[in-house]
Amino acid sequence: MDTGDTAWILTSSALVFFMTPGLAFFYGGMVRTKNALAMFMKIFAAIGVVTVTWTLLGFSLAFGDDVGGFIGNLKFIGLFNLGTNSSNFGLTIPDNVFMVFQMMFAIIAPALIAGAVAERMKFNAWIIFIALWSILVYSPIAHMVWGGGFIASNIEALDFAGGLVVHINAGAAALAAVIVLGKRKNSGKPVRPSLVLLGAGVLWFGWFGFNAGSALAADGIAANAFVTTQIAAATAAICWNLYESLTGSKPSTIGFASGAVAGLVAITPAAGFVTPFSALLIGVAAGVICPACIKLKNKFNYDDSLDVVAVHLIGGIIGSLMLGLLADVAVNGAGANGLFLGNATLLMNQILAIIFTIAYSFIFSFMIIKVIDKTIGIRVSDEIESSGLDIALHGEDFASKE
């Protein structure tokens, strides 16, 4: 055990946890005032629900001994058999530190989906959905990518900090959810850009733990991930504003915040495998492609309220593909060279992993939410949707004063 590594991963765990309240501010500022508290509740509820599911079953399914390449066994059910001063995973940090770091990823992944279903999903349906999703979708994907399962061992794809596990996974689930849920009766523009910027700032800050912490040590790879994270986020934010200007809009605060998040998403799978200049290229791609993809929801007629698909699914795909182009073993010997350094195999592996992750997440997420819809229903009534979810579902008003 290394005390420096342990201290860094504990700090990173706290940083990643802080991202979830940051996400609440980011999303909460994008919905109408009458639905703001309902958005906050959906995201904060993920902290409670997934902490319990991860403790009881999720961590073991993700990081238990491999069963058939798709799931872990029940070795760590209830968090038994974890070392408090030793590692089952060959790390220099205790098992419980590794577990809690991974818990924070498991919490924010379903919280991301909340942005797609904003302003129309029942709270009780949301609770059941994220509980089942965290066990049946998140944990298997985490195992296949990070737990020695199918994607890591058979496809041999790379994912440094969650491009596949968190962002593509949540983005595909968000698409499935909005298809079942249907479009809002009426939609509005963001009414509190200051909250959006605050949330983006908190997310940006926490993302250093998200990416640099994924080195699982306080070393040069963590430092590289820290640097590439900053460069990609800043570059994408500027490029999003530039895209707005070149397409007839004004450079907006929402655009800058969204661009920063898109850059953070895109660098996530590659942060510990690419050079700083490659991170700049990834930021450019995310800052241009992600805003362009927002138009897809109009073309295909689905209502992704806060553009989770365009930012997280597309951003995750961009980062995972560009990792296949730009990865450099000089940065991280545990990785592989990409196509631009003479290895076409990695790019093919990344494409296969992206397709598999989207298919698995979309199909199982669709099934989960469809079953919930057929049993208790997933959508609030037209009356509640019109009046707002805050008072109807939670008895509180975002704008109320004593």
Structural summary, described in words:
The chain has 402 residues and is mainly alpha-helical. 67% of the residues lie in helices and 1% in strands. The protein has helices at residues 3-28, 36-63, 95-113, 123-146, 150-155, 163-181, 193-212, 220-246, 253-267, 276-293, 296-299, 308-326, 344-375, 382-387, 389-394; strands at 66-67, 71-72. Strands 1-2 form a two-stranded antiparallel sheet. A hairpin with a 3-residue loop joins β1 and β2. The radius of gyration is 20 Å and the shape is globular. The termini are far apart. The mean pLDDT is 96.
Quick description:
67% of the residues lie in helices and 1% in strands. With 402 residues, it is mainly α.
SSE blueprint and pairings:
Blueprint: H1 3-28, H2 36-63, E1 66-67, E2 71-72, H3 95-113, H4 123-146, H5 150-155, H6 163-181, H7 193-212, H8 220-246, H9 253-267, H10 276-293, H11 296-299, H12 308-326, H13 344-375, H14 382-387, H15 389-394
Antiparallel strand pairs: 1-2
Helix pairs in contact: 1-2, 1-3, 1-7, 2-3, 2-4, 3-4, 3-6, 4-6, 4-13, 6-12, 6-13, 7-8, 7-9, 8-9, 8-10, 9-10, 9-12, 10-12, 12-13
Features:
single chain; 402 residues; 15 helices; 1% strand; globular
How far the N terminus sits from the C terminus, by CA atoms, comes to 52 Å
CATH topology: Ammonium transporter fold
The portion of residues assigned to helices is: 55-70%
| SS element count, helices | 15
Architecture per CATH nomenclature, i.e. the level-2 architecture: Orthogonal Bundle
CATH superfamily: Ammonium transporter AmtB like domains
SSE topology string = HHEEHHHHHHHHHHHHH
Class based on secondary structure composition and strand pairing:
mainly alpha
Largest sheet: 2 strands, antiparallel
Shape: globular
Total tally of structural domains = 1
Low-pLDDT segments: none
Q: What is the CATH class? A: Mainly Alpha
- The percent range for strand residues is under 5%
